[in-house]
Amino acid sequence: MSDKRGDMSLAKGLVIAAPRSGSGKTLVTLGLLAALRRAGRVVAPAKTGPDYIDPVFLGRAAGRDAVNLDPWAMSSAQLRALAAQQATGADLLLVEGVMGLFDASADGHGSTADLAAHLGLPVILVVDADRQSQSVAPLVSGFANWRSDVRIAGIVLNRVASARHERMLARALAQVRLPLLGAIPRRAELVVPERHLGLVLPDEVDGFSLFLDAAAENIGDFIDLAALESLAALVAASDAPPAALPPLGQRIAIARDSAFAFLYPHLLDGWRSAGAELHFFSPLADEAPADHADAIFLPGGYPELHGPALAAATSFHAGLRAARDRNALIYGECGGFMALGEALVDSHGTSHAMAGLLPIITRIDRPKRVLGYRRLLHDSPLPWPQGLNGHEFHYSSAKQSGLPPLFEALDAECIRQMPMGAVLGRVMGSYAHVIAGA
């Protein structure tokens, strides 16, 4: 690798993908990040799609923040610019895929393969070898030849049962003529900690550091790191900065703690680049937003896990009311939207008083999660384009009385959804997580 890390054109990248979810791509990505970091490499992590949780795990393994690259919500130009920006100063950009390589949203767009094609990066395919042997060859061959604009550069086998099993797999794969970079044995310590709707972050996972150490050791032992690095392709330089949504204001107070943890780095970076001042505060610590802020952003998170603390956060509530009274823009997404309401009823049926800036009551009462991409239209005080791309992911519902919605919404297939959120003066919010302009 070159030492000229400031030259974006010299950075290289790879995409880690799999035939299906559960094959081991997160294990391999985390292990590679940790193992390469131990070897002295600077590795920039990224995650495909609208995921708040995996990037935190990836950042922990890499020792630097991860970025989301969303091929459904972002334009090709924005993807390339964000990838180039993330790769600056690194030896390698390592992108973890989502679901199976060719799995996309309901409209057929937004797959890991789409991202690899946009960026021109080769794919390392992680194949779960459990309960199969020679059949691995036609599986890999099919994936390798499915799309001419997606290049599978190498194979990693996961959950290999024995040396004999590995030999059988390797002989079969020889017919496919793709490099076999390594075979990871089936071991109990290599099970990635369970993550569920973002309710688990690395600091909340018992033994995450031990898991990461085990992953780094095993990946370093069983994958040929030098061969893998040699397959990486140049990350194309981008002269244009990543397209960004305009900042909510000149001085933005942003809630950030374990109750409000869902923040996309590309949005914050774009606001900084536009000259906005960002001031962070913790509602859980009963901190009020900066009293000179002309905009307040309450991002998504887990307010339902912190109902009593948020109900008792009188300084936080008073700060929001003062901001409303001075005509600051106040915007909440999902958990932040819930915190702006009158009350939050948790999964046990206990009601917790919220800030009371919007006449809504939210309840954790959905038997199934509400999940999907959203095309959003608005005519509101938000200083953003009228058309936006975002996503929705929650188990709660909101009951409101008579307020105009913040967004008209379509799903990925352009099927009309129920209007989302509420607007009252310059206070507004919804369950949508906004990613980019449409």
Can you tell me about this structure?
By secondary structure, the chain is an alpha/beta fold. Helices cover 26% and strands 25% of the residues. It contains 12 helices and 22 strands. Strands 1, 2, 3, 4, 5, 6, 7 and 8 form an 8-stranded mixed sheet that branches. Strands 10-9-11-12-21-20 form a 6-stranded mixed sheet, sandwiched between helices. Strands 14-13-15-18 form a 4-stranded mixed sheet.
Any key phrases for this structure?
26% helix; alpha/beta; Rossmann fold; disordered N terminus; 438 residues; six-stranded mixed beta sheet; eight-stranded mixed beta sheet
Task: Give a nutshell description of this structure.
Residues 251-436 form the CobB/CobQ-like glutamine amidotransferase domain. The protein is 26% helix and 25% strand.
Sketch the major β-sheet: 8 strands, mixed
**C-alpha termini separation:** 37 Å
The CATH superfamily of the largest domain is known as: P-loop containing nucleotide triphosphate hydrolases
Quaternary class: single chain
Q: Tell the overall outline.
A: elongated
CATH fold title of the largest domain: Rossmann fold
